[in-house]
Amino acid sequence: MKELTIFLMKKWTRTGKTQKNTYSIRSPRNGGKMENPLNSLYVYAENHNIDVDFISTTHTKSMSIIFPDGDTSILINPTKMETTALEVVSMAHELGHCVTGSFYNLYSHLDIRKRHENRADKWAIHQLVPLDQLEKAVKTGHTEIWDLAEEFSVTEDFMQKAVCLYKNGNLDIEHL
Questions:
Q1: Per residue in 57-74, pLDDT tens?
Q2: How far is CA 113 from CA 84, 92, 116, 117, in A?
Q3: Burial profile 87-101: b = 16 or more Cβ within 10 angstroms, e = fewer
């Protein structure tokens, strides 16, 4: 099923259907909750002229790159995406790099790299787990990290970061 989803995503992003000036991946239907986060992310990338390519590498699950002309691309390794939630989180994180311009090179200092990674994570969190939707989910009984992760179609690690961001204002899950 995952291979079929990836194939459909490749086909979907090449259709030329676009909406201009779409800045949110959340749908106004269903109270702002995304109906299909993965589709929404691929459509968002297409609408913002961010190429998404599927590659097989031994070292990374995903990465984003910026070209000298300012164009950006996301590379996804479908063989390393063990779950749909991981693909959702990876895609949102890489979109975060592209949208916020948070790029670095391999020789950047660790504090610079961490700053750019955090900026991409924060963008992804705000898109995938908006505070108002998280509060609604908690009020309806979703109080465990695993349950919230399932509700929002993200990984448990990502949900921990989201809760930490909204609770503490940072991504330091050690102090959750």
A1: 888 999 999 999 999 999
A2: 26, 18, 5, 6
A3: bbbbbbbbbbbbbee
User: In 3-state terms, what secondary structure has residue 97?
Assistant: helix
Rounded to a whole number of angstroms, the CA Rg of the chain reads 16
Task: Give the burial string for 108-121 (b: 16+ CB within 10 Å, else e).
Answer: eeeeeeeebbbbbb
3-state secondary structure of 129: coil
**Cβ neighbours, 10 Å, residue 80:** 16
- Identify the CA nearest to 167 among candidates 146, 145, 140, 150: 145
- Please give the Cα distance from 96 to 75 (Å, whole number): 13
C-alpha–C-alpha distance, residues 55 and 57, integer Å: 6
Q: What is the pTM of this model?
A: 0.80
Angle at CA of residue 126, ends 60 and 47, nearest 5°? 70
Contact 6, 78 (CB under 8 A): yes
